[in-house]
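Module 6 notes. Inverse folding takes a fixed backbone as the condition and produces residue identities as the prediction. Think of it as a translation problem where the source language is geometry and the target language is the twenty amino acids. Below is one complete input and output pair. Work through it position by position during the lab.
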């Protein structure tokens, strides 16, 4: 392995580790540092932004100390933080450990930028490998899994990363290097925006799975798909082929930026049936834009000498020639190199600042209530503009990675996901219609417990202990980068062995769901009036086919109160929709209704003729989970259903407690 392959691999591994840290740090902002919908979004945004602003000081450090020392020290801190996060400590230790890892990662990027003038191959490989591994793990990362295998694989990645970082310094004679040239700033500037667009759209396995689930259902709702991760290897292959294949010439240059913008616009339309197309277009376009900024670096001259059949001595001669040519061109030797390193450092720091501005700007809208569709489009516009204004290279040397073989290898890794990681639960009628149904309603807070850990095991256990026939979920996240990019619904469905139906509320990947052991038909979703509430709301209706002609209507919802008022209008809309949908059949309406018994919104359901199925256990507080005082999670049923054994079992796998009740069906 030569120097440029080693540095490309090391950069890719560092990107993988940094993304792992981000998948812990970002959710910590809204689950540990603050609480979504209660802590001011401006405060949480300022906390996030501050660390990226602090990283803007790193280029000055690089200029004073040198890029290798800065990158090496920061690499050690990044690797240690990533390894320590595998223990998932939860709470403040987890937040500050992730913050330390993030800051180390940002400084490491600046240090690497100081010594690398051709980053596109390493950045592209890191983004693609991370997506492939994330898909292989079914979006449930090693950081959260714990156990011996997770520790072993995390340690291997960290050690390989540190070896790749250290070897050029430890064995300089075996790895001849050239001082980096003056270029590369444009490529480094795109690191942050590319990370944002890849995590939100282009290389987001959870989003791909969500998109496939809409195509299976064929409407404005989604249901369990077969091979839901199938778009991931296609997106990975398209991204790497365009990123590593080199820039197109002349008339073809605008095609990549056009594909990027088209894909992001489809994503911004908030339509579930367009998500797969958005992913594929964005992946190809993003890779092409990175390629347009790619240019041969000084280290490529040494690599070419070896690839042309020469020896390490030839490579060293090429390095020497490059140094002489550089000096002859008047590039002020050490002083000029430090200025170029600083430019690249400031470029990558500014790019990462764009990353956090875009992420905060997009996701804060769900607390503050402003339109956010333009945010990813603007970021894509910045990427397209930087790519199109890059000067075309007069000639092109081969990159450090063969495009076809690299894309094929990583795509093959991603192909394992739909073949092995995907599981599809199947519902089927058992003998005759049941006499009773056990119903669970649970606000799962995107899968995060009170301590800020992604607590999939805790959620699964809390639900499974009730031996439910039907589960109604609120605050279901299926791929927000802010929450780590998990498809929480698919993960729970796999573990409970219950297929799902999903109704979008805030956007196509955040809403409510129904999981059932019985087949479901007649899927419908009804948007609810917002009346100033920042987060969207809907009512998801399904019909349970209990066999022998017996049917039961189920409606899952999560009411969102407008500022300083109760969700009266939404409650009335849900009650009217649910009773009309049931059309005289047995009916269950449940979810986080954000209203207490006796409130006007609560009475909208009783006025509609529904019965409080938890009345026997009142008061039955469900929020907050560690000290429940509010009765805001409810189950309402039609009068023909008889409720028994209502409970709200204690636990801290979410900020709410689940509610469960047994419903006896009316006699036939």
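Target side of the pair, the amino acids:
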């Amino acid at each position: 392995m030569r120097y440029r392959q080693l540095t490309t691999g090391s950069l890719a591994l560092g990107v993988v580790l940094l993304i792992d840290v981000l998948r812990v740090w970002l959710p910590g902002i809204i689950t540990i540092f603050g609480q979504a919908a209660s802590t001011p979004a401006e405060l949480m945004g300022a906390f996030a932004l501050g660390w990226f602003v602090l990283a803007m000081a790193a280029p000055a450090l690089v200029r004073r100390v040198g890029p290798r020392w800065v990158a090496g020290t920061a690499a050690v801190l990044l690797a240690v933080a990533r390894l320590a996060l595998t223990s998932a400590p939860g709470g403040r230790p987890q937040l500050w450990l992730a913050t330390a890892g993030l800051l180390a990662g940002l400084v490491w990027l600046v240090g690497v930028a100081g010594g690398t003038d051709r980053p596109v191959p390493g950045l592209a490989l890191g983004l693609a490998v991370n997506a492939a591994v994330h898909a292989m793990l079914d979006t449930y990362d090693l950081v959260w899994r714990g156990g011996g295998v997770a520790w072993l694989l995390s340690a291997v990645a960290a050690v390989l990363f540190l070896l790749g970082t250290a070897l050029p310094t430890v064995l300089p004679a075996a790895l001849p290097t050239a001082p980096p040239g003056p270029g590369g700033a444009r490529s480094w500037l795109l690191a942050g925006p590319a990370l944002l667009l890849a995590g939100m759209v282009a290389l987001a396995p959870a989003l791909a799975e969500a998109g496939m689930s809409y195509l299976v259902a064929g409407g404005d709702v989604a249901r369990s798909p077969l091979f839901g991760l199938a778009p991931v290897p296609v997106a990975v292959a398209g991204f790497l082929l365009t990123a590593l294949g080199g820039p197109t010439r002349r008339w073809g240059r605008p095609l990549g930026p056009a594909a990027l913008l088209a894909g992001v616009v489809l994503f911004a339309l908030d339509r579930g049936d367009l998500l797969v197309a958005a992913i594929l277009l964005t992946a190809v376009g993003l890779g092409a834009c990175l390629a347009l900024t790619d240019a041969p670096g000084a280290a490529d001259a040494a690599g070419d000498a070896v690839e042309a059949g020469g020896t390490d001595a030839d490579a060293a001669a090429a390095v020497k020639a490059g140094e002489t040519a550089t000096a002859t061109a008047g590039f002020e030797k050490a002083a000029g190199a430090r200025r170029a390193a600083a430019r690249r450092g400031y470029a990558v720091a500014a790019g990462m600042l764009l990353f956090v501005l875009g992420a905060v700007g997009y996701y804060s809208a769900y607390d503050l209530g402003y339109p956010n569709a333009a945010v990813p489009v603007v970021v894509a516009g910045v990427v397209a503009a930087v790519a199109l204004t890059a000067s075309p290279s007069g000639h092109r040397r081969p990159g450090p990675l063969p495009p076809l073989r690299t894309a094929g290898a990583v795509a093959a890794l991603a192909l394992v996901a739909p073949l092995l990681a995907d599981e599809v639960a199947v519902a089927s009628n058992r003998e005759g219609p049941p006499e009773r149904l056990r119903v669970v309603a649970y606000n799962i807070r995107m899968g995060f417990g009170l301590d800020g850990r992604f607590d999939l095991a805790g959620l699964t256990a809390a639900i499974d202990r009730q031996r439910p026939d039907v589960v109604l979920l609120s605050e279901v996240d299926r791929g927000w980068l802010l929450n780590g990019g998990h498809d929480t619904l698919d993960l729970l469905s796999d573990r409970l062995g219950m297929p799902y139906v999903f109704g979008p509320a805030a956007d196509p990947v955040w809403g409510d769901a129904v999981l059932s052991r019985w087949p479901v038909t007649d899927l419908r979703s009804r948007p609810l009036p917002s009346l100033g509430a920042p987060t969207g709301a809907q009512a998801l209706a399904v019909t349970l086919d209990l066999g022998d002609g017996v049917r039961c209507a189920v409606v899952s919802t999560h009411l969102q109160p407008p500022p300083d008022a109760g969700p009266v209008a939404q409650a009335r809309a849900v009650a009217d929709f649910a009773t009309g949908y049931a059309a005289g059949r047995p009916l269950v309406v449940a979810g986080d209704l954000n209203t207490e018994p006796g409130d006007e919104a609560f009475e909208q359901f009783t006025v509609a003729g529904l019965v409080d199925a938890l009345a026997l256990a009142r008061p039955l507080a469900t929020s907050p989970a560690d000290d429940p005082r509010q009765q805001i999670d409810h189950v309402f049923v039609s009068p023909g259903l008889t409720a028994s054994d209502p409970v709200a079992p204690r636990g801290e796998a979410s900020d709410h407690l689940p509610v469960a009740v047994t419903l006896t069906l009316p006699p036939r």
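Reference fact for the lab report: Residues 3-33 form the longest helix (31 residues).
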